[in-house]
Write a structure and sequence with these properties.
Shape: extended
CATH architecture of one domain: Up-down Bundle
Low-confidence stretches: 46-54
Order of helices and strands: EEHEHHHHHHHHHHHHHHH
Mean pLDDT: 79
CATH topology of one domain: Receptor-associated Protein
Strand order of the largest sheet: 2-1-3
Distance between the termini: 78 Å
Number of helices: 16
Radius of gyration: 29 Å
């Protein structure tokens, strides 16, 4: 049987791997022989239709830890308090392992590095920088503000998309009802009438007859197709292909670029304000950009390391906008580069929100017209033979 395991050995850090073993005891025995310490072991599932996202409440953890630290508790006391109040066993184990490493004399950032699936590298780097100045509460407050701004943009986009999605859902349900229930009954009526039907009406009636004769097969095939599409969309390769395709549309690609740059500058500004040097900070935020922009960032990092100014390096390698370029130059003159980058992100986040609102206001009426034409067309094609029959009787 295969097991998904996470192990640790010396300076290698935490390593995830798959191992064939008879049971969990066999996993621990095999890893112990190789000098590894097993952190977790779980049977490998044969098929995962939907990847489960980690449910560790990172923002809530920051907020509660900040409240306890500002109330006067020590770091260990605060973490022990959070562990005692935690109801989920998995999260409590994370707290307990962090506390155990702190008792061994390790720093908080070192303890957090053992759980990369729970704590992102940006957060760990911010904590590590704050440990040098002894100002962990300030670092927690910065990360809370950073994450809150990102969540605010996401909530705005999602809330603006709810009504169009509801329209699409209702339109699809009405269309399916007409095609699966109403049309087959009309097709039986017209089958007994010796009259010539219009071409498109005949096509619709043939669909009704086909659905009536093979409804079960078509239903099963539709369900299989839906599950296959859902599974495909959850795969990392499919997501990358979708994102890559979206970038090819000129208007949408430009908006996606601005959104990624805003997220990039916000994270970079948070790290710089936390005391992280510019070159390590740039390396930490690389994953926030899509692949093509990562290459540009790598080149910009190299030129900054050679002595070029940040503003010029970003402009040279197409990692800024006209507004961002000017604000970066102001940040270099005033020495407040971190704060200026966060202002760049706020400016472009507001710009993105306005663009989403304008797009939704244009898209909603177009969607309603399309749904109305589709449903109305089906109804007209069903009743058109009746109108012609009534005309011939007159």
């Amino acid at each position: 049987m295969q097991y998904d395991i996470k192990v640790m050995r010396g300076a290698e850090g935490v390593v995830a791997m798959t191992l064939d073993a008879a049971d969990e005891m066999d996993v621990f025995a095999k890893m112990r022989e190789q000098g590894y310490t097993v952190l977790s072991a779980s049977p490998k599932k044969a098929l995962k239709l939907f990847a489960s996202k980690n449910a560790f409440p990172l923002v809530l953890f920051n907020q509660e830890l900040l409240s306890l630290l500002t109330a006067g508790l020590t770091l260990l006391e605060s973490l022990e308090t959070l562990a005692e109040k935690e109801h989920k066993q998995e999260n409590r184990k994370v707290f307990e392992q962090i506390i155990a490493q702190l008792y061994e004399g390790k720093t908080l950032s070192t303890a957090l590095q053992q759980f990369p699936e729970y704590f992102p590298g940006i957060f760990i780097a911010s904590i590590k920088a704050s440990e040098k100045t002894g100002d962990i509460p300030e670092s927690l407050a910065r990360f809370i503000a950073y994450q809150s701004q990102l969540d605010q943009v996401k909530r705005h986009v999602i809330s603006a998309s709810i009504y169009p999605l509801m329209l699409m859902g209702v339109g699809m349900l009405v269309t399916i009802f007409l095609l699966a229930y109403v049309v087959p009954r009309f097709s039986r009526i017209y089958a007994d009438v010796n009259t010539e039907l219009p071409f498109f009406s005949r096509l619709l009636m043939h669909w009704g007859q086909l659905l009536e004769a093979h409804g079960g097969t078509l239903l099963v095939s539709g369900c299989v197709l839906l599950v296959t599409i859902s599974y495909t969309l959850t795969r990392p390769g499919s997501k990358r292909w979708i994102v890559h395709s979206m970038w090819k549309f000129p208007a949408l690609g430009a908006r996606l670029r601005v959104y990624q740059l805003a997220r990039f500058y916000r994270a970079l500004g948070m790290l710089l304000r936390g005391g992280v040097a510019i070159v390590p900070a740039l390396q930490m935020v690389t994953d926030l950009l899509q692949q093509g922009m990562r290459d540009q960032l790598s080149q910009a990092t190299g030129t900054i390391r050679e002595g070029m100014s940040i503003s010029r390096a970003m402009e040279t390698h197409d990692l800024s906008t006209p507004v961002a370029g000017r604000m970066l130059r102001v940040g270099e003159r005033t020495g407040q580069m971190g704060e200026m980058m966060e202002r760049i992100a706020a400016f472009h986040d507001e710009e993105t929100s306005r663009w989403v609102e304008r797009f939704i206001k244009l898209f909603e009426p177009l969607l309603m017209v399309f749904i109305g034409l589709m449903v109305g067309g089906i109804v007209i094609l069903m009743y058109l033979p009746i109108f012609e029959l009534a005309g011939s009787i007159q």
